[in-house]
Every structure is written in structure tokens, then in C-alpha cells.
Amino acid sequence: MIFVTLGTQDKSFERLLSAIDREINKKNINDRVIVQAGITKYQSKNMEIFDLIPKDKFEELIEQCDLLITHGGVGSILAGLTHGKKVIAAPRLAKYNEHVNDHQLQIVENFGKSKYLLALKDFSKLGKVIKKSKNFKPKKFVSNTETIIKNIEDYIDKL
Q1: Which of 1, 44, 54, 109 has the smallest count of CB within 10 Å of its CB?
Q2: DSSP string, 17-62
Q3: Which residues, including other chains, have CB under 8 Å from residue 110's CB and lie 6 or more apart?
Q4: What is the CB neighbour count within 10 angstroms for residue 75?
Q5: What pLDDT, in 10s, does the model give residues 24-53?
Q6: Which 3 state secondary structure label does DSSP give 68?
Q7: Residue 141: DSSP 8-state
């Protein structure tokens, strides 16, 4: 199963869903596709599309999916990585009115360069990126949160 999450951004991201629909029609995607679309309004006979999914169901879908296709939001990317999932991340871009700036491009590029995920910048190459994902072994993500909390606690204790 492929889980697609577009986050809760206040701008549409139809461009990604259109690309996925094209690949389903070309038979490059044969898996069940479930989408958390947020405010993006998109109709497809090929995908199960929901506006918002409750947190427990969202976590369940992340756990069940074989591939996570997501926008370039850090929260969505980390949700996939912390569950050890293969992730394809596609940045929302300002020129398409998908975001106010292009910071998601930098996020996706940095995670991609570090081998945590596959970056999708050219949506016409989605089929090739999906094919590449079959053999992709993402770098294991290790959170540094506990170390940061401990360092802050140690600092506070010294005050």
C-alpha cells in the first residue's frame, strides 16, 4: 500500500496527486493508494482520498504502508522515517502557489543528500523514482531529541 500525505498546509497540492494518478493510469503504480489530502480537492477513481485522518489512523497507515509519498514538510517526512519507511518527498513550490516560499525544496534536498529519502523534484519522473524505491535502502533515522532534552536539563540544573 502507498500512503500519500499532503499535510495540513492551507494551499492545494493537486500537482502531486495528478502525477500519482498519471502513474496509476500508466500502470507504474499497481498498489492501493490512500491519500490524506488536507485542503487539496482532487477527484480520482484510482485513489482513496480523505481530507484529514485522525492521528491514530494516520499512524496506523504509516505503519502499514510500503511506501510513503509526501510533501516536503518535516513532520510528514519524520513520521515516515521514524517508522523505518521508504519515503518519496516532493516539495511544494511557491511558483505554483503551493507554499509561500521554497523552503521545502531545501528540506527535501538535504534529507535526500543524506540518503534518508528519495527526492522528487521533477514530477514527470515519478514513475522512475517509484521504480528506484523498490531497491532503495533508506539510512536509518536516529532522533537526537533525548540528547537535546538531557543537555537542556543538565544546563538548567547547573543554574
Answers
A1: 54
A2: HHHHHHHHHTTS--S-EEEE-TT-----SSSEEES---HHHHHHHH
A3: none
A4: 11
A5: 999 999 999 999 999 999 999 999 999 999
A6: strand
A7: P
